[in-house]
Amino acid sequence: FDAVSVVVAKRDGAELSTAQIDWIVDAYTRGDRVADEQMAALAMAICLRGMTRRETADWTAAMVRSGTRLDFPGLTRPTVDKHSTGGVGDKITLPLAPLVAACGAAVPQLSGRGLGHTGGTLDKLESLAGWRADLTVDRMRAALADPGVGAVVAAATEDLAPADRKLYALRDVTGTVESIPLIASSIMSKKIAEGTGALVLDVKVGSGAFMKTADAARELAVAMVELGADAGVATSALLTDMSTPLGATVGNALEVRESCEVLEGGGPADVVELTLALAREMLAAAGLDAVDPADVLRSGAAYDRWRAMVRFQGGDPDAPLPTARHTDIVTADADGVVTAIDALPVGLAAWRLGAGRERQGDPVQAGAGVEIHAAIGDAVRRGDTLFTMHTDTPEYFDAARERLTAAVTLGAHTSERRAPERRALV
Ligand code: URA
């Protein structure tokens, strides 16, 4: 094969053969005979022409084979993981992983950092003093085998789907991220390579998500569920609402605090509800559906697991969480009923305040972010506090205030807070 003929075939709408896909993914990863500009042209052709289910499965398998596929020999408990496509205030992994471990499954989660307005689980956990994301595979295995721990959230190692790492960086700068087969194969190659036996996907829909419409989210969910099935990983998906932030905090340490509240039996109802819904899916996928995660949460066992997990990865669950040096508030500019709090501008405000990064590799501020004091359906008076902003860089208060003010819609009528739309797929 040669790169140009593969690009031309896809450009003209042909279905690529398994051999063509294996060759181009392998040659590109090795930096041999496929240059960045050729892979970028192919990614654009895939964006425009799409890929069939078979092509997408072959593409995913080739990306998995570009590195190591982890396994957990000797583990007696079933493994199950969840992946969220990313949102605003989405801290669900923090209460969910210890909860599912306390219910008897092993949770091997390789996770990522935030990019743009969406937060990343590793950034959140790194606000715990001493906590480390970079574990060796042996330490991950030890965490899962330890009956008092049973869950690990760690950074993907360099040799996990290296083809995706290289291709994702290229897509990011060539306008070729927004392709359902490319997104599905990117996410699933990493999840298949991490070695989990079962997987539950939380596919976000709405302004704060990658997928803005339910149709697009469903198409992505179906593509990922099929890829899981093709690779022997029992995969299901929920579509959940991301038109408004999850919970009442957006930002790293702020979200850890809120997650601890959930683990201690409190916390916002939407976070508790989604954590339990995903836990039920995960336990069903792991064959443990006799266990009720609500009972386990109430018993305090999930909170004990959280503390054990944090300690296993070098963190101190009792250390005070970092706080930002400056805070300021955003108030309502009129009387009315809160009818919407738009996720995207809240995410952008938190990001601007320092909770996220502008470029890969930048540091994040652990204490930065936004607390949301109003809920949809609340009646507010002009001057009431809607948000508290937290940052070490107060020069961004004005820009963040503008976004937060625009995020809130005040109306004359009461509207019920919309429950997250959920739909289980096979
Ligand atoms: N997340 C990923 O890991 N890959 C994509 O392509 C998009 C989101």
TrEMBL record:
Keyword Membrane tagged: no
GO biological process terms, semicolon-separated: pyrimidine nucleobase metabolic process; pyrimidine nucleoside metabolic process
Annotated SMART domains: PYNP_C
GO molecular function: 1,4-alpha-oligoglucan phosphorylase activity; thymidine phosphorylase activity
InterPro entries tied to this protein: Glycosyl_Trfase_fam3 (IPR000312), Glycosyl_Trfase_fam3_N_dom (IPR017459), Glycosyl_Trfase_fam3_N_dom_sf (IPR036320), Nuc_phospho_transferase (IPR035902), PYNP-like_C_sf (IPR036566), PYNP_C (IPR013102), Pyrmidine_PPas_bac/euk (IPR018090), Pyrmidine_PPase_CS (IPR017872)
The organism's place on the tree of life at top rank: Bacteria
PROSITE patterns in UniProt: THYMID_PHOSPHORYLASE
Domain Pyrimidine nucleoside phosphorylase C-terminal residues, every copy: 337-411
Pfam families xrefs: Glycos_trans_3N (PF02885), Glycos_transf_3 (PF00591), PYNP_C (PF07831)
Endpoints of the signal sequence: none
Transmembrane segments: none
Entry keyword set: Glycosyltransferase, Transferase
GO cellular component, as recorded: cytosol
Subunit composition and interactions: Homodimer.
Record-stated family: Belongs to the thymidine/pyrimidine-nucleoside phosphorylase family.
Name of the protein: Thymidine phosphorylase
Native organism: Rhodococcus rhodnii LMG 5362
